[in-house]
Amino acid sequence: MKRMITIGALLLGMLVPLHAQMASSHASTQAPKPASVVTQMPEPTAVARVNGAVLTDRDLVREEYAIFPYAKQHGGTIPKEMEPGIRKGAMQMIIFEELCYQEAVRRGMTVPALKLQQAQATLRKQFPSQTEYQQFLQSEFQGSEVKLREKIRRSLLIENFLNAEVNNKAVPTATELKAFYTNNPKRFEYPEMFAVQTISFIPPQKATAQQIQEARKRAEETLPKAKATKTAEEFGLLAEKVSEDDYRVMMGEHKPADRSQLAPQMVDVLLKMQPGQVTDILQVEQIYTIVRLNKHIPAGKQKFADVQGQIKKEVEQAKTNQLRATLDKKLRQNAKVEVL
Fold first, then answer.
1. CA distance 18 to 42
2. Domain interval for residue 221
3. 11 and 154 fall within a common domain
4. What are the tens digits of pLDDT across the range 245-304?
5. Same domain? 216 vs 266
């Protein structure tokens, strides 16, 4: 039950039309058809009761597709191996939402008329034509604007309740962020790294002595040209023309690499160089390489200011998950929940 509930998600969930054929005992995982081709909707089947309130297979299918919005890329279906887990998560979510709604009503929470009107207008804009909107209204709410508004009001009440009980409380304080940074020093350390460009000459597999010598000769012919380059761009253009490794398409440029990922003989040379300098020919196994050092990055630790945003997201997500789990447990304590 990790999906975040927002009014956008809840309203868009209404737009997930149901497949015309739906098994009564198990919600179909076949991709839903567009609203424009839905002419008849089967009667909804109860899948759960929460304090007497009935949740249907329509609610469940919408939630399944909210959890797994990539069904279209999977031939219109939820992959079989994922189906049980997604169904279980969807069931938990619709029960949780219903419990939140009932608690919001019990507390006397309300939705301002203007906010309700704005939400309904937002939903209406999702339809390219009045005809499609009317088809949706007919298939989902028997053509009743009143029923649609009630559904939207329910969504807004759930959102308001969760803002009060979870989202607002999950926002971490500056002290919490700093404490996370201080208590997890290893998370923000980085190793010594080198950013380089390469021009490499690679003999074929199982190369003969002559083929290896030819690769060496190509490297020797290129070395003076590489040494003559003044900038990373000039070196990169040369790499594009003559290099035989895959990095030639990126002007020979490599992402900064931990020194442990580089050949020891290359590290020994790079440690003695200044940024912008070019090595002589280096041989790593049977590959002959010319390297330009762009940057030597000593081992260190990221500054708090640079990772504060990342920390905030992580801490806020952890607090959100904890608060939601606690809230779900609390709401279920005295509730009667039946999964049918």
1. 9
2. 192-298
3. yes
4. 999 999 999 999 998 999 999 999 999 999 999 999 999 888 999 999 999 999 999 999
5. yes
14 within 8 A of 151, measured Cβ to Cβ: yes
Domain co-membership, 42 together with 125:
yes
* CATH number for the domain that contains residue 223: 3.10.50.40
Q: Closest Cα to residue 240, out of 276, 281, 200?
A: 200
Residue 172 tokens read as 């971490």
User: 142 and 51 in one domain?
Assistant: yes
Q: Whole-model pTM?
A: 0.67
- In the numeric block, which tokens belong to residue 158? 């759930």
31 and 146 inside one domain: yes
| Neighbouring residues of 58: CB distance < 8 A, sequence distance ≥ 6 | 18, 44
Owner of token pair 């912008």: 276
Query: 288-318 burial, b for 16+ CB within 10 Å, e for fewer?
Result: bbbbbbbebeeeeeeeeeebeeebbebbbee
**Whole-angstrom Cα distance, residue 123 to residue 117?**
10
53 within some domain: yes
Task: Fill in the DSSP letter of residue 235.
Answer: H
Q: What is the DSSP letter of 33?
A: P
With beta carbons less than 8 A apart as the criterion, state whether 197 and 255 touch: no
3-state secondary structure of 53: strand
Question: Which amino acid, one-letter code, is at 144?
Answer: S
